C-alpha cells in the first residue's frame, strides 16, 4: 500500500474481531514506532504491550478509574465506548514518556519545553504505529481516554514517567466512513 493511500484509508476502529494478531505483526508495529523522528534523537518512548488474559485486568483497572471520576461528579466523556473497544481488541499498547511527569504536576520551563519536544516525538511514533498497522491490514484506535484512569493504569502497569496514550489493535469488524476534514485552504496559509 502506498503511504498516501495508507494515510487516506486509516480509520479509528472501535469494533474488533477476536482473531489474534501474529507476534511478527506486533513487532512490525513497534519497530515502525521506534523509527519515528525524535527531538535530539532522545527516542523518548516506552511501550507496554497488553494482550491475552491481561486484557481483562486492564479493562477492570480502566473501569475502576472511570468510576472514581464519575463518583467525583465529573464527566468521563467517551471513555465508556473506548473501554469497550479496548476490551474487544486483541492487543493494546500503552505509550509512555519516561522523561515526563503527569501534566497536572508543577513543571519548570525547561521541563515543559522538554515535554513538548518529547510529546511531538511520541506523537510521530504513535502515527507510525497506526500507519504500520494499516499497511498490515490491522485496525487501530489511538486512545487518549486513558486519562480517565491515569494513576490506576500507571500503578497496574508498574511504569514510571508520563503515560501519554494507548493504542488498541486488531482486525477491524467495522468499516468506518471517513470523518469530515477541513480543507487545506482553511488550515494553512502561505507567507
In short:
With 191 residues, the protein is an alpha+beta fold. The chain has helices spanning 3-9, 23-34, 54-71, 79-88, 109-135, 150-157, 184-187; strands spanning 46-51, 91-97, 139-143, 162-170.
Structural class: alpha+beta
CATH superfamily: NADH Oxidase
How can the largest sheet be summarized?
4 strands, antiparallel
Low-confidence stretches: none
Amount of beta strand: 5-15%
Q: What would the CATH topology be? A: NADH Oxidase
Distance between the termini: 34 Å
- Give the count of structural domains: 1
Helix content: 40-55%
Order of helices and strands: HHEHHEHEHEH
**So how many helices?**
7
Output mean pLDDT.
94
Please tell me how large the radius of gyration is: 17 Å
Arrangement of strands in the largest sheet: 1-2-4-3
> What's the architecture in CATH terms?
3-Layer(aba) Sandwich
Extended strand count = 4
- The gross shape turns out to be globular
CATH class: Alpha Beta
Protein described:
- The protein is α+β, with helices and mostly antiparallel strands and 191 residues long.
- It has a single domain, classed as NADH Oxidase (3-Layer(aba) Sandwich), CATH 3.40.109.10.
- It is 45% helix and 14% strand.
- It has 7 helices and 4 strands.
- α2 (23-34) crosses α5 (109-135).
- The N and C termini lie far apart (34 Å).
